Amino acid sequence: MTASVATRLRTKSPLAVHIPGDPMKSVTPNLDGVSETMLWSLYGRACEARRPEGILVDPDSMRICDAIDYDFVGHFGHPIGSLAARAVEIDHLLRGWLKHHPDGLIVSLGEGLETQSRRVDNGRMRWLSVDFPAAMELREHFLTPTNRFHHLAASALDMDWMRKIEPSTELFIVAQGLFMYLEPEAVNHLLVEITKRFPGAEMAFDAIPRWFSRLTLWGLMQTPRYRLPPMPWGINRNEIEPDLRKWSSRIGVLDVLDYRVPYGWPMLFEDFFRLFPYAQNELPCLVHAVIREN
Predict the structure, then answer these.
(1) Whole-angstrom distance, CA of residue 103 vs CA of residue 126
(2) Number of domains the chain contains
């Protein structure tokens, strides 16, 4: 891991300030940089879960969002549903995988305050959340680890979490809202190590297009009060399969999937964009990959 990558990722260190009174209203997160994005995605899921016709059922995100003292609207504006749609599509992949691997292990890298483990729980699966120590401290204020739901305070770029997993384990690795914040060489290294160590495993991650990555490097304001952190790794849809197969010959099945804005003018704009085949390469997407057995 390069020094610049390590420095930027270690800003993902949410420190909770405890306020006297109701314990469920006692957390004011002190966040900046990449760490603050865990609140952005939490807010997006909670807002969608509150919509009468929302695409996501997520009572835990609503509970956590209500308990945090933070100006969500002032920082992130009004959600358009895209982050919730991303979560829904990954939920769908995990539920499908669990039908065939009901006792399997799901590892979620850089998980922050994601509540996916509770949404897809079949009562038998195991789950490992990996994130920096301070992020885990905040997570554990709301989501207590159990004998099936484990927490590991570590960087996703460290090999520590990999060493704790037997290579023969039925395994699905999720990296939701993570890879875009890494340098391209770090994404390459992490994916190659995963394919070497876990034959037969599956994984899902999301990717942003190059143009959006460049905007964040120049400085992109989500609202007048919030600038998005730099996202160095951008890749266009048509580049994903050739690039990943160039990185590792161990990648077997590889699907590039859509996650769609569910309503409003952003949905109409996206639908228009998708009428042009070349333009589809310029939209965010999900990647679902299966690692070869040998």
Answers:
(1) 7
(2) 1
